[in-house]
């Protein structure tokens, strides 16, 4: 275990329907590197996770409602996928604004699978290179993104990945990106 992320806190923005492995594995990678995570969602309480979008996969406790969060409190942002999760997030003005402000701040944002739908709604993908789950790529292109089919695409502060199959490469890339940012105050 390294301490690359000692003193750093990463926000994870997710809602009901989040793909379990896309929340749990990146969170574990941050913790293994010495950092902390806090789950933000649309409401306090807990969110329901899924396996393969359909099967219930337990719950995860929400640390704070996104409406009560400030990007100044976090060193990085994770946007996991699952098809239902980003669909719920992109219809919430507070969640969309949080994602937009985070990208525009220059702090690193890791997004996997369908999570890019939230960034599309936030209007921050035009001219950026990203990868995603295949069914999201047309939406990314229509929003002006340069879409690639790679395990991980890094474009400035955006780190994107295609699917759970790419989690080892994605987790390594986000830890590296989060380690480069000064700790939040």
UniProtKB/TrEMBL annotation:
Domain DJ-1/PfpI: 8-176
Any Pfam family matching the protein: DJ-1_PfpI
SUPFAM superfamilies referenced in this protein's UniProt entry, alphabetically: Class I glutamine amidotransferase-like
PROSITE patterns from the UniProt entry: PEPTIDASE_C56_PFPI (PS51276)
Family indicated by similarity: Belongs to the peptidase C56 family.
Protein name: Peptidase C56
UniProt source species: Mycobacterium paraense
Species classification: Bacteria, Bacillati, Actinomycetota, Actinomycetes, Mycobacteriales
